[in-house]
Write a structure and sequence with these properties.
Rossmann fold, alpha/beta, globular, two-stranded parallel sheet
Length: 344
């Protein structure tokens, strides 16, 4: 278990601020926080997706002894986000960071390593849930590895997963698109954060995990309206492997190759993708609400003026979006995907 960062902790937990939050300051999760930051224990999460789950656990605990702060503002791309010196200093002082890991936060790698070297705690949560290699989804989707998906991970492995030396690593970091995996992360976070959040943290982690699994049932119900022959996706980058594996979809192709938004496809790759889209009769492309791509629009036009559906990929939505937290983000994405593939 993790020891409290400060023994003099007083209160404050916290709800996501809007997308206009300054990228030079961490996103605190409560406008009404009244406790002085100098007397509060601070718990950092790198992404808004993780911040949503950590905040749910902290709110459930309700001991009001921790300020939960999210490093990235709403709408930030985790792949290329770079923290300011002020943010890095605050993270180092806090000493406890909940990170995705598996090289998702490519701009934070050195900073997170330094925090660990200085004796801080960085929880690399994607490594707890049997991460998939990139491209590891079945041909028909419906026969995905159910041993993994059916909540069979009784104990999470907290060891770091060995990554290959190439830029994005061997393993796909986008685990949150499988809600069952995020439920496992929530449960494990409750255990790991007991020293920070208090003795009820494990039971609160389990409670939040159960809420996520209830959301998963809603997502499955929404997706059940999509026929088997329509369960084919083309996405902006390789972020939906877990979604395909968990919910019975195929990934026919991606506009930006690899698991990052930073790569650049060749003209030959784009031409082959357009041919695939036309051959399969795919009705819409799945884009990124916060990372709208000219390449995506070009492929959509070349493929017959298809719609690009803006999904919430690396960040939750701003207030009023209907995707303000992790669960509502996943429900919103499921509905957008189902409507697009059903031609609604």
């Amino acid at each position: 278990m993790i020891s409290p960062v400060r023994s003099t902790a007083v209160l404050s937990t916290v709800a996501l601020l809007s997308a206009c939050s300054s990228p030079d300051a961490p996103v605190t999760l409560d406008d009404d926080a009244t406790t002085s930051e100098s007397s509060a224990t601070t718990l950092f999460a790198t992404t808004t997706v993780l911040g949503s789950v950590v905040d749910d656990i902290a709110r459930c605990v309700g001991n009001n002894s921790v300020v939960v702060e999210v490093l990235m503002p709403v709408g930030a791309d985790p792949h290329d986000f770079a923290a300011s010196s002020e943010q890095l200093a605050l993270m180092t002082e806090a000493g406890v960071v909940v990170a995705n890991g598996l090289r998702l936060e490519m701009g934070l790698g050195d900073a997170l390593e330094q925090i660990e070297a200085d004796g801080g705690t960085v929880l690399h949560v994607a490594e707890w849930v049997d991460p998939l290699p990139f491209g590891d989804h079945t041909e028909d989707g419906s026969e995905a590895d159910q041993d993994t998906h059916d909540h069979a991970h009784d104990e999470a492995d907290d060891g770091h997963v060995e990554e290959e030396s190439h830029e994005h690593g061997e393993y796909d970091p986008h685990f949150w698109f499988d809600l069952s995996r995020m439920a496992l992360v929530a449960q494990q976070l409750g255990n790991e954060l007991e020293g920070v959040l208090g003795e009820t943290a494990p039971s609160c982690g389990e409670s939040v995990a159960n809420e996520i699994l209830a959301t998963e049932e809603e997502v499955i119900e929404i997706l059940s309206t999509v026929s088997d022959d329509q369960r084919v996706l083309v996405t902006d980058h390789e972020a939906f492997g877990y979604f395909a594996d968990a919910y019975g979809f195929d990934i026919a192709g991606v506009v930006i190759p690899g698991g990052s938004t930073l790569a650049e496809p060749s003209s030959a790759e784009l031409a082959a993708l357009v041919a695939t889209i036309e051959n399969l009769g795919i009705p819409a492309l799945m884009g990124n609400y916060y990372e709208q791509s000219d390449l995506m629009e070009a492929v959509a036009q070349e493929s017959g003026s298809l719609t690009v559906v803006p999904l919430y990929v690396g960040s939750v939505g701003a207030p009023g979006s209907g995707a303000e937290d992790y669960s509502s983000m996943m429900v919103t994405n499921a509905q957008l995907i189902a409507d697009a593939l059903n031609g609604s």
